[in-house]
Predict the 3D structure of the following.
Amino acid sequence: ERPQAREHSAVCYDPEESRLIMFGGWANKWLDDVWQINVSSIVGPPYAILKVEPPLGPVTGNMHVTVRGVGFQSTNGMVIVAFSAGKLEATGQGEVIDDETIKVPTPNVQATIGAKDCIVRVQIGVRDLTTTTAKYTFFLNSIAEKSLCYGPGVLQEQQANVMTRFMIQTRNEEGGNRKSGREDFVITLQQKIPLGDGKVLFEDLPYELTDKNDGQYEVKYQADEGDVVVHVKLVDESGKPRPIRGSPFKPTFSKMARNKANEYTGPLITSFITSSLKSLDEFYQTTNVGHAIKLKDGDVMNLIKVMNHIKDMYREEDALILRQDEIFETLAHNDKEGVPGDKHLKQLKKIGANIRQLKEDIIAKEKEIQPMEEKESNLYRKVIAEYEESLKTYQGGLRKEAYYFYKSGLELAQKRLADVTKDLDNFQVRFDELKHIATNFLYPGELNPSAKLMQAMRDDVANMSGLWAWEQKRIVETEKFQVVRWGDVSPMDMEDDIKALFKKLKEFKGDRKCDAYIGMQDTIKKWTVFCPLVGELKDPAMRARHWTQLMELCGKSITVTPDILVRDMWNLELHKFGEAVEDTADQAKQENKMEITLKKVANEWAQVDFQFEPHKGNEEVQVMKIGDDKVEMLEEHQVMVQNMFASRFLSTFETEVLFWQKSLSNVSEVSQLLAEVQRSWAFLENLFIHSDEVKKELPEDSDKFVGIDADVKDILKNGWEVVSAKEFCNQSSIFQKLEKAQTQLNMCEKALNEFMDGKRRAFPRFYFMSSADLLDVLSNGNSPEKVVPQFPKFFIAIDNYSLEFPDGAGSRPHATGMNACVGKEYVPFPEPLPLLGKVESYLDMCIEWFRKALKFFAKKDVTRYFEEGCLEDGDLRGQFIAKSQAAQCALLVQLITWVMLVEKGFNEVQNGKESGVYDAWQAQCRLLLCLIALTMTNLDKPTRQKIMCAITLDAHNRDVQQRLYNAKVTSKDDFQWQSMLKCYWLEDEDDASMQICDAKLPYGYEYLGNGPRLVVTPLTDRIYVTATQALHLCMGCAPAGPAGTGKTESTKDLAN
């Protein structure tokens, strides 16, 4: 609806809504008389567009461009950039950067606008599009497959070390040259550097790329003499590099190239244009003439030539177009450089027209020959099938050829192989003809079965040729072996050669079931059996008896000498009796080993003599024995002889083997028995012949031993005379004589053992001694000075007694004191001890005497301890211990006085002095400290040992008193005190008594020497209680605990 006409109306403009508002005026109307009209399409929005940068882009879009203008920030809302060409339009959504800038990706216009010039306008929010516009051009994308390179930089024979260049001309998919730049390329230039041995190193070359901004790009680079590889790739819209037409290029550089060869207008470009035009024209002429050949029915070869010319046209079409494009662009570039090429351009246009016409003629010719092509194609399919059948027929007859049969022989087999090879060559000629025809008719696969048949026959003939070539070599090798003399033959070399031949035969890849292969295999197997037999029969162990055995086996006879030939052995056909021949050879070797072993045994035992040495220095009686090395040899020889009985080939040497078995057995038995007799005789002789006491105690056995002694000496005399061990041990009655002597010696030894048992019962300490030591003591019983050195073997700490001879050197001595073997100490006897009577009698007196001596010094030391004031004074007490005659007595007195000190403290407590136990403890500590101080003075070793033992016991005593004090023990009847091992000197008995709990045991006075004492711990105190209670109750005690914890030592210490 429009307003009515009026006059004198009021009009105003609304810039926000871009509208005109009219009201009032003379219109003869009072209501609904306000009108508005939108004039935005005339005045435009409050912003304007000026230009687009860049002003062009690809039709595929997605290229970010910048829109320049004013007032873009005056309005809020979505930014739409419209591209239009006539009625076609495409939009993109942009972003306001500032008041004068908008960024926007271009839209894809391939399906809408296409490659055209467009008008660009902007709309923001609900506002209208701008009334101002800008221009933007969409172009088709560059295509690598349409683009090309030209110029001297991609040609051969350029100048080395001179700047060269080439142009890249980008084209779109319609083949048109691009008119703008901004394309991306991936260009690689690499110089080839030969390294030798056929290896090449590629080194990258620097280059300069210039965008001409008209669709052309120039590349400049410089290279050394040699070959260069140039790769040029155009990056497509998806970002993938794609090689342009002709890439890679392979230019070459030479120092001898023509001057200015690297310039666009130089001689290299001129030569390139001329030669390229010539090659294009030659191709046209050749193809034009070739495809126009007149064809007759059945003329298949000319038909194929025409077909090939047609194929050449299709195959070379792209290359022809590329070459024409390169020439055209080169001429256009030179024209810009001021070098006109009208002549060449006309020639190019003519050739281009000819080639286009040629293609049309080719298409027409292709349709023309199609019926003939189909006819000939079908015909030759049948020909190929017939050819295949002929091959099959021929192949079937090959299995009957002579070379498949071993009996045909080498000469005939090789002749037939040559004939068959010639036939196959003729088949191959026909096959090549048919292959050429079939390939051009596009069915070369039709000949695949025939090709397989041909190849199979070729392979078969090749395999059989190789097989008969092997047979020829085998004949030469075996004939060479057969003419060698038996004495000169080398079995190992011959066997190696035969094995090599056999290995080569196994490599045969043909039919192993054919008669020829089986025959050759049988022949070589005979040789593989024969060669090891030659090695066996060449063994020096072969004797005449063994050859006779072989001749009987083979049924043939020859005289075996070093001059016979290997052929003579081959003619025996030993390979037929392989196991029997090996058995005979093995028999020869085994018999030879036996023979050598028996000779060795005989030679070695002929030299084995007894070793002699005087018996106790008496040259008239020589003790005999076989050396240890000969004993080992005897055992070895017995094993060797015994093993011969396990051999299958014993019969030849059975008599000798039996002889040596018996002889060596006699040597072993007699030598062992002889050693036992000599040992027993030498042991008993000292007693029954030289000991008066034994003679007195065992008179009958002593008389018997005189006869035994004579028999043994006769045997030893016989051995001295014979000397040879084998001869002596194999005497007829020697073993019986030795057995008799051994039996009699055993009876004497038994009587002697009964005698020694009686002595042990009389003096139990003899049980501590071995029989040999005891016999030594008994045999010297009348000489106490010889018995005294044996004291450590039955007295725990006595090394010997000091002896005096008051009645002269030949009389019995008197003992005046004893020397310790534990530590260093001498204890004199209060009175001398005469060593009279039997040995067990005066040994009993020895025990009684050292006990009396120890009791004497103990009693004396108890008295001296109190007299010298040692009870309270630690220094005097230390001097007392140091000067005591026997360390054992000093320690006994120390224990007695400690008990008195502790019980004195108990008594003081009972009498009202509460610190009695504590005072006693402190007194013991002072005494201990004095002893410790004494060790810091200069003491001799025996004295220091006594002081150290006293400190050990004092330390234990101090610890016991501390426990008593801490436990508030105040009575000697308390168990903690009763459980301690205590010693008292009983005045009424005038003796020391050991007491613990209710057990009271007299002190034994067994001499202990001057040795170290065991450290006493609370655990030691506990076992003392247990062990003494068991002894008191006449029961057993078995300390238990892990190894190394002191069970044995604690028990021994208590016993001491």
